[in-house]
Amino acid sequence: MAPILLFYSLGYRLDKNFRIGRTGGLYVSSPVSGSEIFVKNKQEKKTNILQNGLFLQNLKTGIYPILITKDGYWPWLKNLEIKEGLVTETRAILVSKNPAGEMILKGNFSAIWASPNDNILLLEENKAGGVYATFYLPDTKTFLTSASSETAKLLSFKSGISKTFWGNETILLKGEKNVIRAAFDFSRQTVKASLEPIDDFSIDHKKEKLTLRKKERLWQDDKVNAIWLEWLADKESIPYYLCDIKPCENTSYLISNFRFPIKNADFFPGRRDVVLAATYNSVFTLEIDNRGGRLSFPIYKGKEPTFAVFPNEQKVYIIDDGAFFVVSLEEK
């Protein structure tokens, strides 16, 4: 009996063909409390505020269907491989089927962008003579006013805004001929604009986003309607959702190609392994982890929406058909 117990304690099992092999493990977590986790059609756990994950060990190698459900949310289902001597890790994304939305202002808005440094939004508003840069503070639900008539004139772009670069309490806006610097006075709720003595700048925050830890860079290739993610730290620390078979040689990963142009792409708030994207008539989530297929869930469907998010706020700010509104991602 002792040799058999030792055999099992070391993680070895007999497969269906009576071959000896080591077992593996599984760790799966869900961000939504009260969700049910099923492994091979068997409920293994119901999550709560204190425990949002499930760990199983001594599993035979092979493909395991994993299902996570909760009423009112789209089900999350993947077939993941349990490998010998390893723990397969995954984190689900659960999206409400009917997220709550609130209208902020019905106008003639065409685009929206969020600062990575301050809680402020840039909205592109179509007016007579071109596109006007408008700034909104979600915390106080107020629009900044121009500090002078000269500022109002400088924030009007005849051919639109082609590039943006956010600084602390400032933003650079590239128009057809000039670069404009807009500086924010949050206490007075005003914006002051001035001409910047440069022709261009290399980083475009419209097309690329960084995580808060600045180890991942998300960027768009508009020539082929593609979203890429680049790992900026050392290769040894590349996370499982980019590369689960070590060593990892690549640092750039294609997330997806789309049939239609990409209006915006950004990281899902609070996540590094899920992105939000807007193409054609939809805003939706898309997993970075391609094991078992990249799952995608709808956030909003309309005419030609685009969006902006802040990394630590569970909300999506959306522009569609001229209207400006917000959709909540909070757990119900």
What does this structure look like?
This protein has 332 residues and is mainly beta. It folds into three domains: 2-91, Immunoglobulin-like (Sandwich), CATH 2.60.40; 117-196, no CATH class; 208-328, no CATH class. The chain has helices at residues 2-9, 149-154; strands spanning 12-14, 20-22, 24-29, 36-39, 42-46, 53-59, 62-69, 76-82, 87-91, 101-114, 121-127, 130-137, 142-143, 145-146, 156-157, 163-167, 170-174, 179-185, 190-196, 208-210, 216-221, 226-231, 252-257, 262-267, 274-279, 282-287, 296-301, 306-308, 315-320, 322-328. The termini are far apart.
Summary, kept brief:
Helix content is 4%, strand content 51%. It has helices spanning 2-9, 149-154, and strands spanning 12-14, 20-22, 24-29, 36-39, 42-46, 53-59, 62-69, 76-82, 87-91, 101-114, 121-127, 130-137, 142-143, 145-146, 156-157, 163-167, 170-174, 179-185, 190-196, 208-210, 216-221, 226-231, 252-257, 262-267, 274-279, 282-287, 296-301, 306-308, 315-320, 322-328.
